[in-house]
Design brief:
The protein has 150 residues and is an all-alpha fold. It has a single domain, classed as Up-down Bundle (de novo design (two linked rop proteins)), CATH 1.20.1440. Helices cover 68% and strands 0% of the residues. The chain is built from five helices and no strands. α2 runs antiparallel to α5 and α3 runs antiparallel to α4. The radius of gyration is 18 Å and the shape is elongated.
């Protein structure tokens, strides 16, 4: 067997840690951006919209991490769906924040861009994982590149 044939027969490696996933890294960036935006919110919103935005933002990378750490494809898909829901919640709350004049549209431009990118990336990852879920109850061995690893 030639080296190339051996390479074709070996399974691609998957990320060993959630920190290797580009979607987790982008989720962390999004959370930081949301914290920056909400620092300027009125103090009376500390336990209202500020808290809601921050919780939703933290939920995105947290659910990606928890889902990947559980190792089961079905569970990972569920946690990715929760992260998607948090992104929709976050987008809604950022738009409301501008309508309430707690921040300027320019202040939320970068977080909204990250939300859009993450929605697309998570959707693509879910489709990839779902295509393997019928083959196994554990994460299929995917290459780091196909999982959005950096």
């Amino acid at each position: 067997m030639t080296g190339g044939e051996k390479e074709l027969m070996t399974e691609p490696t998957k990320p060993q840690h959630y920190k290797d996933l580009l979607i987790w890294q982008k989720g962390m960036l999004l959370a930081k951006l949301v914290y920056q935006v909400t620092q300027k919110f009125p103090s009376e919103e500390r336990y209202g919209l500020t808290s809601q935005l921050r919780r939703a933002a933290v939920s995105v990378p947290s659910n990606i991490a928890e889902g990947q750490a559980r190792r089961g494809t079905t569970e990972f898909l569920q946690f990715l769906s929760i992260a998607e829901g948090s992104l929709a919640e976050l987008e809604t709350q950022l738009l409301l924040s501008t309508e309430l004049a707690y921040c300027k549209p320019a202040d939320v431009e970068s977080p909204l861009k990250e939300i859009d990118e993450l929605q697309k990336m998570i959707g693509a990852l879910k489709r990839k994982l779902a295509s393997f879920s019928s083959l196994s109850t554990r994460h299929s061995p995917l290459s780091p590149r196909s999982l959005g690893c950096h």
